[in-house]
Design brief:
The structure holds two protein chains of two kinds. Chain A has a single domain, classed as Pyruvate-ferredoxin Oxidoreductase, domain 3. In chain A, 39% of the residues lie in helices and 22% in strands. Chain A has eight helices and six strands. Chain A is globular, with a radius of gyration of 16 Å. In chain B, a hairpin with a 4-residue loop joins strand 20 and strand 21. Chain B is of the alpha/beta class. Helix content of chain B is 34%, strand content 17%. The termini of chain B are far apart. Chain B folds into four domains: 214 residues, Rossmann fold; 97 residues, Rossmann fold (3-Layer(aba) Sandwich), CATH 3.40.50.920; 173 residues, Rossmann fold; 55 residues, Alpha-Beta Plaits. In chain B, strands 3-2-4-5-7-6-12 form a seven-stranded mixed sheet. In chain B, strands 14-15-16-18-17 form a five-stranded parallel sheet, sandwiched between helices. Classes of the chains: A alpha/beta, B alpha/beta. Chains A and B meet through helix 1, strand 2, helix 2 and helix 3 of A and strand 8, helix 10, helix 13 and strand 20 of B.
Chain lengths: 192, 583
């Protein structure tokens, strides 16, 4: 049986998903594990649906997570969470940012944004954590640190030394934004 | 040795550096673009964006004739443009090594077709390496240069989206201390491809491929991984990873050089199994050749030729196991890509829609003008096709219908291959309206410089092509330049020029929203005055991501976080409901 862990990041182009998956992968590499990550650039960056696959363990082959084997769906937006729920293992976990971003058909008034998504997600996957990312990011002092807040919440469910997370943030976040991001990470860690 | 996490594209750039490459040229194209962008971090390499893939390869060929190692990169469809020099380069061979990286896009994540470049390797008689992860991407790039010089041939390195855009752990090496100084060296029998010379060279090419085939049977990049000994799999590239994932007990022949195939090795391997699979993405390239050797294999009868492979798709194809897929049910609203808030193209497409134009389109961000609610693109074939398509369709229509035809093309695409179409349109006395959407950058692939930018890949300033003069020089009499943020003028000009029975060009000029150096003046976001908004939805015709319909209040709203204050929506509103801050 493979020891590989699979995390699928999902959200909307422009939410900082690629940076978050970058930090996560760096952490796993520093933990001495084999890591692969995968995502699509190009068209999807224009406000479209974005996913990033991160896999780590003793030896990783495919950079795409085999369908139905996602251990953690780590999602930045509610609707996008629902899109990828079928790819989760039955006992999978969800960490989701409590945020709705209207897709074009909703913005044009042609379709409604589906109601009660958080309830729906938690019903299907009892191991769901809902994080108020934007509130915490604003508390940290910068609305653009939502991705770091969410990484903090993710770190709670991964068995990785806190020091490694801090080291990765020091390495990958620009100097002038470091303090606010460290604060955002801690707020995410403490989020209930 | 230092270990780092690199994408396939970053690893290829690093491989070029470690191979002592002196010149790198490319035209941007997803998923290949980041290779050249990453090469700029190695100051020893002269890296540049060429105007198109053909020119990029010709620049590479020149450098290699001078004795330097040269890297040329492009996406799969770029090879169609570069095919002309490529096929003859195969005959001339190289002096310094030349590696042509081609990045295929199975699943068409960001492309207009799904062609399998391995067929080019066979067709052009150019050997091709195919890496399966980032570490191999680096190693095979270096190996490519060695093989290129050893066998006096250009070498293909084939990547795919999942190799180029995946990150995995890579071991770094060093750049060689001494790199041979390029010089002029004459060898016309080898480099002047007239019939008399080329006829001789063709024999050299065929002999070379046979030699390489034999050589490849003894090289570690083609290897056998022993499993339980019951089932054999022949595979290459990213498909290898899916095989290891899905069939951990299979014996695997992993092929690193996909052209020419190591035939003896394949024969020896195949002899051991009753059940033998070929697992490969897209065309049955390996499968057909293995079958032609008289070996029975299972391949594309079980795995689709269309789309990319995934671990689940391999499992489903070979073992008929059901796999879960993303929830794309209609209840979950889709989230397609869209033009950015403040994109200068948006108003132009709204006006084309309103003018009921028949729009021959082209490749770029503006292809998104096809999407509702703009819905203003009727054709899109390939880079530069819009103008030729407009010429052709105008030839067969009545005079009245002709006037509806408008070709739309971006600055980078126009300079890539559109200019030829415009010259042809004038030369052959066709009549159509051409709109050049000049945002001074190659935007879709992530903002790369081009001759309309005034900057080079290394950020140095350079001459900026004068679009208006260029159009006049090929004989267009009616050239108008306007600011596409001015909607009234855009509408008036489009309608006037569509009515004109002669070729005319409208250049809409306004830098891409995403280029910081061109967007220094910060504009304030707008907001909607709900007392004035009548809920008529006219602004929604723009499809701007910053404008959303508020179903509860039956009014429009602006998302002030993403609004960039272009004020195009303000001009669509008949009730002055779009207000600037402070008003």
């Amino acid at each position: 049986m493979s020891d590989v862990k699979n995390i699928l990041l999902a959200g909307v182009g422009g939410q900082g998903i690629l940076l978050a998956s970058e930090v996560l992968s760096e952490v796993m590499m520093m933990a001495g594990l084999d890591v692969k990550k995968n995502e699509i650039h190009g068209m999807s960056q224009r406000g479209g649906s974005v996913v990033s696959h991160v896999r780590y363990g003793k030896k990783v082959y495919s950079s795409i997570i085999p369908e139905g084997e996602v251990d953690i769906l780590f999602s930045f937006e509610l609707l996008e969470t629902c899109r990828y729920l079928p790819l989760l293992r039955k006992d999978g976990q969800v960490i989701v940012n409590n945020l709705k971003i209207a897709p074009p058909s909703v913005a044009l008034g042609k379709q409604d944004y589906p109601a009660d998504l958080t309830k729906e997600i938690a019903r299907k996957f009892p191991a769901t954590t809902v994080v108020n990312g934007l509130d915490l990011a604003l508390e940290a002092g910068n609305a653009k640190t939502v991705n770091t807040v969410l990484l903090g919440a993710l770190s709670n469910v991964l068995d990785i030394d806190r020091e490694l997370w801090l080291k990765a943030l020091h390495k990958m976040v620009p100097e002038r934004l470091l303090d606010v991001n460290l604060k955002a990470f801690d707020l995410g860690c403490n989020a209930k | 040795m230092e270990k780092v996490l690199l994408s396939g594209n970053e690893a290829i750039a690093r491989g070029a550096y470690e191979a002592g490459v002196l010149v790198a040229s490319a035209y941007p194209g997803t998923p290949s673009t980041e290779i050249l962008e990453n090469i700029t971090r190695y100051k020893e390499i002269d890296a540049s964006w060429s105007t198109n893939e053909k020119v990029a390869l010709e620049v590479g060929i020149g450098a290699c004739f001078g004795g330097a190692r040269a890297l040329v990169t492009m996406k799969h469809v770029g090879v169609n443009v570069a095919a002309d020099p490529l096929f003859t380069l195969s005959y001339t061979g190289v002096r310094g090594g030349l590696v042509l990286v081609v990045a295929d896009d199975p699943e068409l994540h960001s492309s207009q077709n799904e062609q399998d470049s391995r067929n080019y390797a066979k067709f052009a008689k150019v050997p091709m390496f195919e890496p399966a992860d980032s570490n191999e991407a680096l190693e095979f790039t270096k190996l490519g240069f060695e093989a290129s010089e050893k066998f006096d041939t250009p070498i293909f390195l084939r990547s795919t989206t999942r190799i180029s855009h995946s990150k995995s752990i890579v071991e770094l090496g060093e750049r060689p201390q001494e790199i041979p100084q390029p010089t002029l060296e004459r060898d016309p029998a080898k480099r002047v491809m007239l019939p008399g010379n080329a006829r001789n060279r063709h024999y050299v090419v065929e002999k070379r491929l046979l030699e390489m085939e034999e050589w490849a049977c003894r090289q570690p990049f083609n290897r056998i991984e022993k499993g339980a000994g019951k089932v054999g799999v022949i595979t290459a590239g990213v498909a290898y990873q899916y095989v290891k994932e899905v069939m951990p007990d299979a014996d695997v022949l992993k092929i690193g050089l996909v052209h020419p195939l190591p035939k003896q090795m394949i024969r020896d391997f195949s002899a051991n199994y009753e059940t033998l699979y070929v697992v490969e993405e897209l065309d049955p390239f390996i499968e057909e050749q293995v079958k032609a050797m008289g070996i029975k294999v299972i391949g594309k009868d079980k795995l689709s030729i269309c789309g990319e492979l995934t671990p689940g798709r391999v499992q489903k194809g070979l073992f008929n196991k059901d796999i879960p897929t993303e929830d794309n049910s209609p209840e979950l609203p889709a989230r397609p890509p869209n033009m950015c808030p403040g994109c200068p193209h948006r108003g132009v497409f709204m006006e084309l829609n309103r003018a009921k134009a028949y729009v021959t389109g082209d490749i770029g961000c503006y292809t998104l003008g096809f999407m509702p609610p703009l819905s203003a693109m009727d054709t899109c074939v390939c880079m530069g096709a819009s103008i030729g398509n407009a010429t052709g369709i105008s030839k067969v229509l009545s005079e009245e219908e002709q006037r509806k035809v408008v070709a739309v093309i971006g600055d980078s695409t126009f300079l890539h291959t559109g200019i030829n179409g415009l010259m042809d349109m004038v030369y052959n006395k066709s009549a159509s309206t051409v709109i050049i959407l000049d945002n001074r950058i190659t935007a879709m692939t992530g903002r790369q410089e081009n001759p309309a930018s005034g900057y080079m890949l290394n950020d140095q300033e350079t001459y900026r092509v004068d679009m208006e003069q260029l159009c006049r020089a090929v004989g267009v009499k009616h050239v108008k330049t306007l600011d596409p943020y001015n909607i009234a003028l855009t509408r008036k000009t489009i309608r006037e020029e569509m009515a004109r029975p002669e070729t005319s060009v409208i250049i809409t000029t306004r830098p891409c929203m995403l280029v910081p150096r061109d967007n220094m003046d910060k504009r304030m976001p707008l907001y909607v005055d709900h007392d004035k908004c009548t809920g008529c939805k006219a602004c929604l015709r723009l499809g701007c991501p910053a404008i959303a319909w508020d179903e509860e209040n039956k009014k429009s709203n602006i998302d002030r976080i993403i609004c960039v204050g272009c004020k195009v929506c303000q001009q669509t509103c008949g009730f002055d409901a779009f207000i600037e801050h402070g008003e």
